[in-house]
Amino acid sequence: MKDTKKGIAEQSEMGLSLEDLIRRGARELIQKAIEVEVKELLEEYGNVKMLGGQRAVVRNGYLPAREVLTAVGNVEVCVPKVRDRSGTGIKFNSALVPPFVRRSARVTAALPWLYLKGISTGDMREALTVLVGDQARGLSPNVVSRLKGEWAAEYAGWMKRDRSASRYVYWWADGIHTGLRQENDARQCLLVIIGVKPDGTKELVTIGDGLRESKESWLDVLRDLAGRGVQSGPLLAVGDGALGFWAALDEVYPETRRQRCWVHKTGNVLNALPKSLQARAKADLHEIWMAPTRAQAIVAFDHFLKTYGAKYPKATDKLAKDREALLAFYDFPAEHWIHLRTTNPIESTFATVRHRTTRTKNCVTRSTFLGLAFKLVQEAEKSWRRIRGVERIAELLSGTVFKDGVPATPDDTQPQQLAA
Q1: What are the pLDDT tens digits along the chain (420 aa)?
Q2: Would the N or C end of the chain have less CB density within 10 A of its end CB?
Q3: Half-sphere exposure of 408 (CA within 13 A, CB side)
Q4: Rounded to a whole number, what is the distance in angstroms from the first to the last CA of the chain?
């Protein structure tokens, strides 16, 4: 009976073409690798618990099956989903099959992603074989080296273009530490700004580098923008606690307001608390930035300081010192709040780089380093969507004052009279 089933299976496979067999093998390999990735994520957050002791981050089925476009046709894969029951927004993004790779009809679209993952030029053909079959073996190291040179030249030209017509409503700014080394063994930091234009679309504003997120490095980036025509900054900039960016912003674009990233701030506060309290504290922090009004957020803010301040002053000090910057989003349209409370557009774009290059031994030149990162963002940019509430942008730019996410009434904007 067993031999009969084996014979039927062999006859079935004999009817498949070589391309079908390659696609089947690629699908199985990719699927196994994705399952390993999600397992690692669940193990990483295994200690994060709900109040009842249940795990906060759990599996939650699969996304709809999608196809990765390759040189031998479409390879169908199923990417798992995870659910973060604590509400902090932890998601699973596969490094092997990121969204921008599936949308590229060319092998070259995957090359910067593979290289930034730590795959050397010589190993790239083997890596691509998993995605595109045996045709990838024709990709020589010289071809890859030439492509890297083209990316660097393309980036250099992009950084010289005139920006006098550019205007932005919001910016997300962040420093991305990739782990890649330059030839002098210095570990560079990518300085990235993504902006929202008046039509609600997102675009890469600039991408530079520095040895760290210092004021001097960020000044170089912002002064370059101003020198190429960006005369005014956005209405609001969203970033983490890197003092270098905020100091540089105050010098070049002092009119821009600040919004601190709640994801970064939550991590900073929780790191100063014992693990046994972190799930509860995370829920208390969630009550602050999810409050429907600034007044309710302040009540929740003060409750957190009172609850944890006596025993864990370091944690509450981290929160209290940025009170105004953490609550700035309340002065902007409620439809935009989901975009303004975090630097997620940058985090998600560079998730592959941030989490998958810690062990890489690649050594690159500065131009190659920036060119690779530029191409990575270009591919990701194709999948960026407009922000919610696009119609509110015109009101903002016309000077409409918002309070708690809605246009303020005349009474809201008048100074309050003191009681006699």
Answers
A1: 545 444 444 444 444 555 566 667 667 767 777 888 888 888 888 887 877 778 888 898 888 887 765 544 567 888 888 888 877 778 887 766 665 554 434 455 555 555 555 455 555 555 555 444 554 555 556 666 776 788 889 999 999 999 999 999 999 999 887 665 555 555 678 899 999 999 999 999 999 988 777 899 999 999 999 999 999 999 999 998 877 999 999 999 999 999 999 999 999 999 999 999 999 999 999 999 999 999 999 999 999 999 999 999 999 999 999 999 999 999 999 999 999 999 888 877 776 545 434 444 455 677 777 887 787 788 778 778 899 999 999 999 999 999 999 998 876 655 444 333
A2: C
A3: 17
A4: 97
CB contact at 8 A, 362 and 120: yes
How much is the pTM? 0.69
| Pairwise CA distance, residues 258 & 246, whole Å | 8
Identify residue 80 by its one-letter amino acid code.
Answer: P
DSSP classification of residue 235 = S
Maximum Cα–Cα distance for the chain, whole Å? 98
Nearest to 196 by CA among 90, 332, 399, 327: 332
Task: Tell me the β-bridge partners of 199.
Answer: none
Give the SS3 label for residue 407.
strand
360 and 102 Cβ atoms separated by less than 8 Å: no
Q: DSSP string of 289-340? A: HT-SSHHHHHHHHHHHHHHHTTT-HHHHHHHHTTHHHHSGGGGS-GGGHHHH
Q: Which two tokens stand for residue 195?
A: 């902006």
Of 325, 151, 340, the residue nearest 243 (C-alpha)? 325
Helix ranges (H only) for 228-309 are 243-252, 262-271, 275-289, 294-308
Tell me the domain boundaries of the chain. 2-157, 262-341+391-414
Tokens (6 digits) for 326: 């953490």
Instruction: Say if residues 178 and 353 touch (Cβ distance below 8 Å).
Output: yes
